[in-house]
């Protein structure tokens, strides 16, 4: 590692390279194509940024492209890459979907050596002949298991068809999918597999809790968790509709939150992340757009408001906490049926799922029953006070001194005199008139 980068590492507080950084450094610097597999939060970004930058020369056009699955991850990778690139006079430009295209084109006119972006925007600019790729010597596909799936797989392949055939490829991921075993078949170049997942212990201790709560009470429980000391959480939802509904409930109950979803503008998403990182809000509600690669320093907790449908999704979500040796907490919401399904989903993993309970403004693994210290007589007094019928004499609580209540006698109903109604009166007057007429 060149001295400038080594000094930068030390200023960041790193005493030594992580397993993935150490394992891929020489192959990448030598120009080999690699597949790097390492746990979440193990330093994969710096693992490929440092050796790739050491191969580049200032003023020689775009020589490296880094592809990320989301705007947030692309911007994060841009910041990390730029912090090292400026040390060796290299320029880095970010081009992502949802951002201002004209501004990005102006940045490209400054002839950067590194471009970081999302696949759709990169391909669009290549096809519009705005992004020149004839000098590209390295392409990094970050979160490869995600990018090489569905529609983005074809987009990535098309991008690679527009760069020189001898280009160096780097694939990085925390989880493995079948496509990663067929990289040479699809991309036509030998790829060295480097897997450090079994030897990497950079992740801190993370507790995985099961909090039983019904769907209608999830928002209320989320609000209660904000009263836990030093609680701050990235909260995952499966659907934007559920996210927005929960946001409305929390806002109505004066719980400050920020949201992150694909249908927001980039400026809104960036502000939400900034507010969350700076502690202005305790909850960041997000879809899986934030599940991959996003690095939030010392994030205490992740909450799965909606449980993920696959073990891979679970791995990436919970990987946002417990990064680089920091402790973390995962809280999974669901009813009894949901939590049983989650256990079955993760039965082949190493996650230890344990029940957790919210009591007295804290999370605990043991349920504490309400205090039973008051006796029955005190209970009677408490109930009587609520009804407004308690006596101040303590002897009134003793059963022997209680006087039996005498039921008050009801007055006898008054009997009406016979013939003393309007009908009998009229009959009598009629009889009198008849006698007078006679």
For the structure shown, list the relevant keywords.
single chain, 438 residues, alpha/beta, Rossmann fold, 7-stranded parallel beta sheet, 16 helices, 16 strands, globular
Give a concise summary:
With 438 residues, this protein is α/β, with parallel strands linked by helices. It has two domains: 193 residues, P-loop containing nucleotide triphosphate hydrolases (Rossmann fold, 3-Layer(aba) Sandwich), CATH 3.40.50.300; 159 residues, P-loop containing nucleotide triphosphate hydrolases (Rossmann fold, 3-Layer(aba) Sandwich), CATH 3.40.50.
Radius of gyration, Cα only, in angstroms? 36 Å
CATH topology of the largest domain: Rossmann fold
- Count of discrete structural domains: 2
CATH architecture of the largest domain: 3-Layer(aba) Sandwich
Count of alpha and pi helical runs? 16
Low-confidence stretches: 372-411, 413-417
Protein name: DEAD/DEAH box helicase
InterPro entries: DEAD/DEAH_box_helicase_dom, DEAD/DEAH_RhlB, DEAD_box_RNA_helicase, Helicase_ATP-bd, Helicase_C-like, P-loop_NTPase
GO molecular function: ATP binding; hydrolase activity; nucleic acid binding; RNA helicase activity
Family: Belongs to the DEAD box helicase family.
